[in-house]
Amino acid sequence: MPASPRSRLRATGSGASSPASSATETWANRCAIPRSFARWPSDAAQPGDIVNAADLLPFIVSGIVVGTVYGLAAGGLVLTYKTSGIFNFGHGALATAAAYAFYSLHVVHGVAWPVALILSVLVLGPGLGLLMERFAAKLAPQPTTFKIVGTIGLVLVVQGVAVLTYGTTTIRVKQFLPGAGRSFAVLGVVVSYDKAMIAAVALASVAALWAFFRRSRTGLAMRAVVDDPALLAMRGTDAVRVRRAAWIIGSTFAALSGVLIAPLIGLDSILLTFMVVQAFAAAVIGRFSNIPLTLVGGIVVGIAASVAEKYALGTSWLSGLPASVPFLILFVVLLIRGRTLVSPRVRTHVRPSSPYRAPGWVRAIAGAVVLVPLLVVPELVGDRLSFFTTGLATALMLLSLGLLVRTSGQVSLCHSVFAAIGAVAFSQLHLDLGLPWLVAVLLGALVAVPIGALVAIPAIRLSGLFLALATFGFGILVQQLLYPQTWMFTSFAQGREMPHPSFAEEPEQFYYVVLAALFLTALTVVLIERSRLGRMLRGMAGSPEGVSAMGLSTSVTRVTVFCVSAFLAAIAGILLGVERNFATGGDAFFGSYNSLILLAMLALAPFAEPWYALLPAIGAVVPGYFTGADTTSWLNIIFGVSAVLVSMAGGNPTMPTRWRARLDRLAWRRGGSSRPAPAALPRVREEGDRAAGLEVRELTVRYGGLMAVHGLSLDAPMGKITGLIGPNGAGKTSTFDVCSGFNRRHGGRVLLHGSDVTGRSAAARARNGLGRTFQSVELCDTLTVLENVRLGHEAGQAGANPLAQIVAGPVAWRTSRQRAAAALERCGLTHLAGTPAGELSTGQRRLAELARCLAGGFDVLLLDEPSAGLDPDETARFGDLVLSVVQETGVGVLLIEHDMALVMRLCGYLYVLDFGELIFEGTPAAVAASPVVQAAYLGSDVAVERVDENTRRS
Ligand SMILES: Nc1ncnc2c1ncn2[C@@H]1O[C@H](COP(=O)(O)OP(=O)(O)OP(=O)(O)O)[C@@H](O)[C@H]1O
Question: What predicted TM-score, i.e. pTM, was given to this entire model?
Answer without folding.
Answer: 0.83
